[in-house]
Amino acid sequence: MPDVIPEDSVGLVQPQTIHFDEPLQLSCGRTLNQYDLVVETYGSLNADASNAILICHALSGNHHIAGYHNMEDAKPGWWDSAVGPGKVIDTNHFFVIGLNNLGGCHGSTGPNQISPETGQPYGPDFPIVTVDDWVESQARLADHFGIQQFAAIIGGSLGGMQALQWSINYPERLRHCMVIAAAPRLSAQNIAFNEVARQAITQDTQFHNGHYYAQDTVPRVGLMLARMLGHITYLSDDGMRNKFGREMRSGKLNFDFTPQFEVESYLRYQGERFSTAFDANTYLLMTKALDYFDPASRYNHDLVAALKKAQAKFMVISFTSDWRFAPERSREIVDALVAADKPVSYAEIDAHQGHDAFLLPIPRYLDVFAAYMERVKADTPIHNTLAEEG
Amino acid sequence: MPDVIPEDSVGLVQPQTIHFDEPLQLSCGRTLNQYDLVVETYGSLNADASNAILICHALSGNHHIAGYHNMEDAKPGWWDSAVGPGKVIDTNHFFVIGLNNLGGCHGSTGPNQISPETGQPYGPDFPIVTVDDWVESQARLADHFGIQQFAAIIGGSLGGMQALQWSINYPERLRHCMVIAAAPRLSAQNIAFNEVARQAITQDTQFHNGHYYAQDTVPRVGLMLARMLGHITYLSDDGMRNKFGREMRSGKLNFDFTPQFEVESYLRYQGERFSTAFDANTYLLMTKALDYFDPASRYNHDLVAALKKAQAKFMVISFTSDWRFAPERSREIVDALVAADKPVSYAEIDAHQGHDAFLLPIPRYLDVFAAYMERVKADTPIHNTLAEEG
After folding, report:
1. Per residue in B101-149, pLDDT tens?
2. Do the chains contact at B28 and A255, CB–CB below 8 Å?
3. How far apart are CA A254 and CA B332, in angstroms?
4. DSSP state, B351?
5. How many Å apart are CA A59 and CA A278, to the nearest integer?
6. Measured between alpha carbons, how far is A308 from B341 in angstroms, rounded to an integer?
7. pLDDT tens per residue, range B147-205
8. Cβ-nearest to A191 among B127, B196, B261
9. Do B317 and B369 form a contact (C-beta atoms < 8 A)?
């Protein structure tokens, strides 16, 4: 808990729930007649609504990006290191929006929310949503705020995929697109890891075909396994070596199956904590959205063709030790953007933290990020006005 | 099933069970008063027992290395591509021994076998065995056959670790040591993957604390998940891309949780097949033997010091795309051997198949292997005698 809210924090923040009545046609063919999105915003929207930044979340993220909900919070939002007054995403200049995506489990319409049609949790009947669907729902969220064009749309991992899809689906609605630690589509290995996680959840005896809410239980073991496995793929081999090595909890071999090495107890702890904090049906949906993401698929599998209509300027960032979405995968995006004749900057950050690096305050990363944000500011009318006034 | 047994096959083979009465003191402090080892042999032991090769198996391997058990066998033994008359491990020259290690589930004393003391399966009461314990039991197996010194001890992965440990524990009992796709100890990431597999098994509701035999069930889901996960780590990202890409079974997205991509159905099939063919308690033991392997630990964590007393000549082989035990890990062994002033050859084979490559008939691999085996032959008295006679 913060004894004192730090000066560069957005401070105490409150989520808001925004209701949408216009039916949303989904990629799967089904329609959501109405839905809620839970949102947090930081900073102030300027008069011409030109200083808005949308931050899209990754697999287990949500709307709570920065600041604290109350003085008892143990931790701030998930990207507090990057978002705040004077930080790289500077809330003194920008109006920042974070949301919980459709299908999420933190208040937006999703499996753990009550369906107005049945009066029961959606559960496994919640449709499989795609990155396209999220972009569509986020565009309506922009309409709600009167934002015609974002100064930037930013995301890491699955969040970066949403940013990239925005640049294709709504080319005129963002000036900058920042795609961090992402890939233009999942590899067979990525899909394989997701499938192990899904099998762990769906074959858990407490899953009850997704109707576990009614049984007052959760597929705790399945979700724990999914998270343990996911966690390994978020860290690098080197990073784990640095963090845990072969350190043993008791200093010697136990010759039993209790946690022996530090890395085992760390993973169990992380898995167990997640297993009761996150919704299993949402986890399934998020992994499917990842598997299905493939913006080139509608363009004869030609990513260059898919990106031809983009109008944003792009910043792509990758991390050397990220093996979930390795730098090669980011370079596929960069190469396609170059071939499509789009303005793109690319930085490969030397970091041993693996995929997790995108969330961490790595100095070189924040420096590069901040430098690019200066360009975003320069392209933001309000900023220019202020600069001229100053 | 083989219509005709190929000419370069060892043909129809039969395992034999060898009983040992002398108590075996284990690393954990417990003692096995008696035990069986199931063994297959190929070729003929010469008069002075100088032409014997021991092949040690990996995590899910066993004694059935080459040939067929009957004409209905769908597949030959697990390393049939390398072992046979005229093959790289040439049974015209060598007497080859394969065994199922202690704790295994293919007939050697292990969790699924009846304890003579209780009349019940050992189950979870079977002690955690180590690579040291296996080497000791294999040394007694050598005694049984009257083999004072092996021409070579060969193994891949966990099998390579046994070969390496032999060179330290019984330096005078092997002339050549071939360590393929192995590592001098597991990394934190390796241990982490093993721990996810163990959690999947032990938290399966059908595990019954390891006493599932009495319940006439098996922890099918847990073992399936362990195998699916293991399988991903045996293949490379590139190899999976080549093999599966993003090919879809139906040609289009289903928007449900049935297997969508080829890689999903492949993994499920492999996992399900394994889940009823292998013993869960054995899987747990094998992963612990992997985690605990660390020959340097008794030498103040100095691998060079550990290898000082070795007398064998070494051949170390790694594969470029192996990320379970990457070439860097093999080079740690090579570097330590060089520093310890031991004769060592090293080959890094360009292969996209990942860790699995060590089992596959990759031409460059077999060529390098065969070239080294000529040196083993040259160091084998019987071969020299035959050559002089001819």
Report:
1. 999 999 999 999 999 999 999 999 999 999 999 999 999 999 999 999 9
2. yes
3. 27
4. -
5. 11
6. 60
7. 999 999 999 999 999 999 999 999 999 999 999 999 999 999 999 999 999 999 999 99
8. B261
9. yes
B157 labelled catalytic: yes
Q: Can you read off the two tokens belonging to residue B202?
A: 């032990």
What span, in angstroms and rounded, lies between the C-alpha atoms of A341 and A336? 9
Instruction: Extract the tokens encoding A21.
Output: 């009545």
Q: Which residues of B43-174 form beta strands (DSSP E)? A: 52-56, 83-84, 89-90, 95-99, 152-156
Low-confidence ranges of chain A (pLDDT < 50): 383-390
The whole-chain average pLDDT of chain B stands at: 95
CB B27 within 8 A of CB B134: no
Report the candidate in A140, A159, A148 with the shortest Cα–Cα distance to residue A34: A140
Letter for the amino acid at B18? I
pLDDT of residue A382: 57
Q: Angle, nearest 10°, between helix axes B262-277 and B220-234?
A: 120
The Cα angle at residue A98 between residues A97 and A100, in degrees rounded to 5: 140
- Which residues, in sequence order, are CB contacts of B348 under 8 Å at separation 6+? B317, B318, B319, B320, B327, B330
Is A195's CB within 8 Å of B224's CB?
no
Neighbouring residues of A271: CB distance < 8 A, sequence distance ≥ 6: A223, A224, A225, A227, A228, A231, B199
Cβ–Cβ contact B270 with A under 8 A: no
Q: Chain A: nearest CA to B30, how far in angstroms?
A: 10
What is the 3-state secondary structure of A163-176?
HHHHHHHCHHHECE
Backbone angles phi, psi at B316, to 5 degrees: -115, 130
**A71 contacts A115 by C-beta, under 8 angstroms:** no
Distances (CA, A) of A319 to A83, B238, B366: 20, 19, 37
Nearest residue, CB atoms, A246 vs list B188, B193, B200: B188
Report the residue of A27, A129, A131, A191 to disrupt the B interface, i.e. the one with the largest count of B CBs within 10 Å.
A191
From the candidates A133, A279, A322, A356, which is the catalytic residue? A322
Tokens encoding A158? 């699955």
Interface predicted TM-score of the whole assembly (ipTM), two decimals: 0.94
B83 bridge partner residues = B89
Cβ contact A153:A178 at 8 Å? yes
Minimum-distance CB partner of A198 among B193, B257, B323: B257
Taking only residues 335 to 374 of chain A, the set having a beta carbon closer than 8 angstroms to any beta carbon of chain B reads none
Which SS3 state, helix, strand or coil, does residue B135 take? Answer: helix
Distance CA A73, CA A9 (A): 13
CA distance A10 to A2: 13
The pLDDT score that the predictor gives to residue A390 is: 37
In contact, B379 and B93? CB cutoff 8 Å: no
Q: Apex CA A54: angle with CA A46 and CA A83, to 5°?
A: 85
Write out the DSSP string of A95-157: EEEEEPPTT-SSSSSSTTSBPTTTSSB-GGGSPPP-HHHHHHHHHHHHHHHT-SSBSEEEEET
Whole-angstrom distance, CA of residue A18 vs CA of residue A35: 8
Contact across the interface for A205 and B202, Cβ inside 8 Å? no
